[in-house]
Amino acid sequence: MPIIPYVPPSPTIRVAAPIHSRVGTGAVAAEREPGSASEPASDNDVNNLLTLSSFLAPAREIPLDMLHRGATPRKRWDKKGGIASRASDVDPGLASLLADRNRVSCVVQKLWQSGEAARCPTAPESYIISEETRRRIQDNLNGEHQTFWKTQALLVAYYALSWKNIEARIMNPAAILPHVQFVLAAHDSPGEVVATSDAAIALSADAKEDLILTLTEAVRLPDMGWKRFAIHRVRDLCAGVQDPYVTARVSERESLVSRLSGQDPRVLDDLNQMPLNIGDQRMHAARGFAAIEKSLNHVQIEELQKAEGILKCWQPLREQSNLMGQVVLLRKHVLLGKIQRFQGQFHEAVRELETAFAIVKQNESYLNFEEDAPDLICNYADALRERGSFEEGSKQDLFRPSVPWKVYA
Fold first, then answer.
1. Could you name the domain of life of the organism this protein comes from (predicted)?
2. What DSSP line would sit under 73-134, residue for residue?
3. For residue range 21-59, what is the model confidence (pLDDT) as tens digits?
């Protein structure tokens, strides 16, 4: 359903009428490979980017990095507990534009020059389109075409979110989340969120499952308003979903949000009573994540021995765990170290946290631990201080910025 290549009769850039075929399958859509030398932006590229932008959050900066991430392959956990690459579900022709940073930059330059887009003084790698431009573009599209572009905006925005431990964290969530919220929500006339958008509900089963799991990952992002919003959207999207792994991850994240909201934590099902699906090893990791969440619920009410016992019950399926299991083990040992510190067991706490560091070093070539670093290092430093051996521990490379995994305090 692309926009026809269009040469405007005046300097004003306009959106041409879409036709019933794939976006960007016209002659200019795939002329250049990503990374090739910059060329003047084609009118088709301009029209496509401007139309997509009009279905993102109004009056918000649109980061170029979000567009690139939304159109390029992302990493996901596979059913063996390893890491797989997942291609973007964005229309291939549109994705070929967004994935090419040079090409997008040329389009944005043209939009700036024409006045169709404004610069962002505090975010040079972003742009904003006016509400007037947005309305004009949408008014030129019929209902079917609007539905198509709403879906593309949804796919681009949510695909820009990262999964913890298998992708680098996004450095500007405050710029991306407003777009994710906007495309996921149905709004009433004053603009209040009332439900999940039709575009999200209408996704294919595979894309919807990926969206659900991406939102469960993104619950970790600030703030509480976002966390509650994400969980509400996940609940809507899960209607009719029967995959045990998906429902287990959703239940665990619901419990997390309840606890952080100050509500009674959601009672988690005993996943150990479910038969183990050998074909989907993610399920055993889901049991581990659920055990961690249950343990945190007990820590919240100072039932530390119960919390410790729950954690110790989860073990990897085999001695050499898969990568997903390694993530569970890392979080398990960090939390055990924290619990033992709270109980005054400082030697045991140091031992648990050193086990966590060993997991990091063993897997740093495959996994990303930048989001785990502050909690792990702070707990280790506190445990060493409480044990009376901080000076000895501080001589280790663990506290130096030269460690291979990035530390963002």
1. Eukaryota
2. -EEEE-TTSSEEEE---S-HHHHHHHT-HHHHHHHHHHHHHHTSEEE-TT-TTEEEE-HHHH
3. 233 333 333 333 434 444 667 899 999 999 999 999 999
Pairing of strands 193-196, 83-86: unpaired
| Residue 129 within any structural domain of the chain | no
Domain count, the chain: 1
Instruction: Check: CB of residue 362 under 8 Å from CB of residue 319.
Output: no
Which sign does the torsion angle of CA 144, 12, 23, 67 carry?
negative
Handedness of CA 181, 186, 187, 193 (dihedral sign): negative
The phi, psi pair for 195, rounded to 5°, reads: -170, 180
pLDDT given at position 354:
96
pLDDT exceeds 90 at position 286: yes
* Residue whose structure tokens are 């099902």: 269
In this structure, the dihedral spanned by the alpha carbons of residues 26, 74, 52 and 212, taken in order and rounded to 10 degrees, is 130
Residue 135 lies in a domain: no
- Does residue 397 have a cis bond before it (omega within 30 degrees)? no
Tell me which residue range forms the domain holding 377. 329-409
Type and span of the H or E element at 250: helix 244-260
